[in-house]
Amino acid sequence: MTKTQRYRYEMFVRVRDFGRAHSELFAESSTGGKTFAHVAAAVAAIDDHMKNRVVAKAEARRVESATREAVFSGMKTIAKVARRVTRGTTTARIFVMPRRRSFKVELATAKAFAEQAEKRQEQFLRFGLPPVFVSDFSALVNELQQTESVRLSSKTLKRQAQEGIREVIKDTLNDVRDLDALVEIAMRHDPVSLAAYDSARRIEGQGSSKKAS
Fold this sequence. Notes:
By secondary structure, this protein is mainly alpha-helical.
């Protein structure tokens, strides 16, 4: 959410709360009541967009972080054993740990390790590795590959959330502009409450006019 969008969202929350505090003047079936309800629904929709984005992002990080560390640990074990298994051969160059820990480099290296270790599984097992070590490592590498899809999905959800928020704000600004007129008419004899609406309607960074959008 951009700064401008956040300011508008905060204004929607204040307007929603104003409507709830003065619900006796705006029956649910009236134009004012329905418009305040639209604003309340918009706040809930924006909340959902932000929540879904945060949850997706956190899940992507959790899955990737745990799996990535497990794969990296397995790579170090394979590299250590490989120095003995492949000593004196050019194959030793395959089992070199990456110098930098970027996701793509680690994933590519882990795939190569898994493929080459499987070809030499019996040799690796002679050094005391569990019988399922290579197969378990290959499964972790596949899981790490899948986290890339999770990361991409997270980015897609982020874009979708941003677009959803943009559309909700655009539509709700029109509702609030309708409320400017509805509230002014309903509270023309109540300057204190009207001033409270003006305060709720003000958007930070856009002056004091309730007509700001």
